[in-house]
Amino acid sequence: MIKVFILSDVRLYRDGLIACLPLRTNVAVVGAAPYRLEAIHRIRAARPDVVLADLSERANLHVVRAVATTSPRVRIVALSVWEVEQDIVACAAAGVHGYVSHDASVDELLAVVERVAGGEAFCSAETAALARRLSRHRADAQVPGALTYREREIARLIEGGRSNKEIASELSIELATVKNHVHNILEKLRVRRRGEVAAKLRGAPAPRDDERVTSF
Fold it and tell me: Is 7 helix (H, G, I), strand (E, B) or coil?
C-alpha cells in the first residue's frame, strides 16, 4: 500500500484527489493540508511514502524544500509543473523526485506515484530532454570552450602574466571592461584566482580569427 499525503492550497484540488486516489487499491491518502508550516509537522506524523505537492504556485517551493529536509525518506511528486527551465531547476533543487505536468490525467499521476514510490525518479520525455540540455549546459560552462572569443583572448593574456592594466592597453579596451571579462572568466571556469586560469586552459583551443567579434 502506497501512503500519500497531499499538499495544495486549493481545497477542491485536495478533496478531488482524496476522492479519486483511493479508487486504486494500492493507494491510501493519509493526510492533506494547505501550504502552511504546520503541514511539515503533519507530514512527519503521517509518515507517507509520497507527498503530492501542488506547485502551480512556485512560491510554495520553500515548504517542499523543508519537507525534503525534515522527512528525507519521503518521495515528493510535483503536480501542475510547467515544463520550463526555471521551474524544473527549482523543483530539482528543492528535492522533488517526480513531475506531473498541469495537463496530466489521474491515471498518469498514479503511474508516476507508483514509480516514484518504487524508488525511481520520474519525469516526462519533454522534462527529461530539458534536464539533459541543462546538464550539457552546466558541463560546458566548466570548460574553456564555453568562453567567448574575447574571454579566451584575455584568459591567454592572464596565463602570460599580464595585469588587467596591461591587458587593457594591449587590446585597446577600457580597464573596467577587462575587469568585467576577468570576472566572467573566473566564474565560467569555476576558479577563484587568476593563477588557476592557466591550469584550466591547458589543452583548450586558442581563439581563432574567424570567431573575432567587433563588440566588447
Answer: strand
